[in-house]
Amino acid sequence: MRPVFAQAFCRFRLYTPSRRLQNWSVDTQTIVILDFGSQYTQLIARRIREQNVFSVVLPCTAPLAAIQAYHPAGLVLSGGPSSVYDADAPAADPRVLELGVPTLGVCYGLHFIVHHMGGRVRSAAKREYGHAEVTIEDPSTPLFAGLPSSIQVWMSHGDEAEQLPQGFHRIAVTSNALAGIANEEKKIWAVQFHPEVHHTPLGPQLISNFLKICDARGDWTPARFIESTVASVREKVGAGHVICGLSGGVDSSVAAVLVHKAIGDRLTCIFVNNGVLRKNEFESVQKHLRDKLGLNIVAVDSSERFLSKLAGVTEPEKKRKIIGNEFIAVFDDEANRIAQKSGGVDWLVQGTLYPDVIESSSVKGPSQTIKSHHNVGGLPERMKLKLIEPLRDLFKDEVRRIGRDLGMPEDILGRQPFPGPGLAVRILGEVTPERVALLQSADEIVVSEIKAAGLYNKIWQSFAVLLPVMSVGVMGDQRTYAYTCAIRAVHSEDGMTADWVELPAELLKRISGRIVNEVRGINRVVYDITSKPPGTIEWE
After folding, report:
1. Is 491 in the active site?
2. Residue 8 lies in a domain
């Protein structure tokens, strides 16, 4: 769980970080990825970072100057769902192809290169989707260095390059279509398949080859990130005071420790009980982060205030916005009190992560917005605070690595993700104190049994959901009429995609038995076996 700011202000431009402190510096070697709308774009960033090279995703509509500001060592053009010849097809500034840096097109990226450099793209006679075998025709090209003559890949396209631009040649094919092109003189390569997905087993080697073409150093490590971030915070903040919205989750905790390392006691963390935390969370978070991390925490119990605002509300996005707006109001009150005591507060720390940024941005070209995220966007102008988002370029596993290098305890770093709006988005329908109490008890049973089975740290998320469904049951020869509880457990790398976990039947039996026997008001338990996509991890 991270602070729930600005639900209503979630539209922003990734490449114009107004009032935000950035971690990136000119000496950071960067691969810039232009997003044309593929749901796999974030995987390209991950595969590059796995080789200790920093990468950043920008909308394909990013101005050329914004791309050049990163002094990119290389450029990747992502896939996308559109056809490049459509009138409303997402398009980058064609001058990106003239930057002179090594460039790799992926799927739609190949079509963009062909289309804008004088070739021709057409609708394919046979769509390719799924596993395919690619034959490498030009093993001398450095993109395919060390790869066998035939590789298994993942395809997802309905168009194909019919005519190549001048200076390009074919480097790979499938039985149906062209699969790779190159213009070594211009340092441009493109493949029709997706090297970033697990279904292309040798994809990491291909990406490694591209990074070698870019002369990437592979020196973007947790230690270097911590050093540069701490220095950046110190420089920007100066002698100022900073506040942080703290939840006790991994993201806000690591963000707070990073900033605390930079400025010490000039950081004050505010922890708000919004009434939809997990059972005993309000007390345990304070104890953990004060005793183990030495952070200065102001704890505010506003549960009644939040729950009164949520009364009668059933629509998921409205719940999120109510919690976000109310959080702003509570946080603003506390920030003003702190400012009066400290002589002023200039900066606000948020635990925004890169998946939040990617999922919440929706301009012409980038991935479709799935749902609003609590950390992404601006603050009300009346707060007049500049943002420090030290983790906004990181994925969850990278945040945990940073935390370990900071010496943070594993019982904090190992916590599973928890949604910003808390249990409000795990209670389908109206959020009431009674229903919150039911879910808190059921969820505690799920978590405790998952931990007892030794699975907690092997699962991305495991939790309970309270459904607005009541059914007849029988207990002690008496009829019951009570709620249904759903159990959700998923595997994921970063929350962008997920597969449901095949929990052992005996474990499910224990969880179900405990819930219906110990939580008065629930008489039926079901297990969610939906992956993401088509579903999402959270039910709302």
Report:
1. no
2. no
CB 296 within 8 A of CB 286: no
Secondary element (H or E) of residue 413: helix 410-413
- Structural domain contains residue 536: no
Is 115 a catalytic site residue?
no
Count of the separate structural domains present in the chain:
3
**Cα–Cα distance measured from residue 398 to residue 46, given in angstroms and rounded to the nearest whole number:** 10
Residue 451, in any domain of the structure: yes
Residues 96 and 60 in one domain: yes
Catalytic residue among 60, 157, 160, 196: 196
Domain that holds residue 126: 29-213
- The one-digit pLDDT tens for each residue of the chain (540 residues) are 333 333 222 222 233 333 344 555 556 789 999 999 888 888 899 899 999 999 989 999 999 999 999 999 999 999 998 898 888 888 899 999 999 999 999 999 999 999 999 999 888 767 777 889 999 999 999 999 999 999 999 988 878 888 999 999 999 999 888 999 999 999 999 999 999 998 899 999 999 999 999 999 988 888 888 998 999 999 999 999 999 988 878 999 999 999 999 999 999 999 999 999 999 989 988 888 888 788 999 999 999 999 999 999 999 999 999 998 898 888 888 888 888 888 888 898 988 887 777 655 543 344 444 444 444 333 445 556 788 999 988 888 889 999 999 988 888 888 898 888 999 999 999 999 999 999 999 999 999 999 999 999 999 999 999 999 999 988 776 788 999 999 999 999 777 789 999 999 999 999 999 999 999 999 999 999 999 989 999 999
Q: Give me the catalytic one of 157, 194, 373, 374.
A: 194
Note whether 240 and 275 are same-domain residues: yes
Does any domain span residue 4? no
Same domain for 456 and 489, yes or no, is yes
Element (H, E) at 478: strand 478-491
Q: Are residues 435 and 349 in the same domain?
A: no
CA 2 to chain centre: 13
Q: Answer yes or no: 50 catalytic.
A: no
Please give the backbone phi and psi of residue 313, each rounded to the nearest 5 degrees, phi first: -90, 130
Give SS3 for 540.
Answer: coil
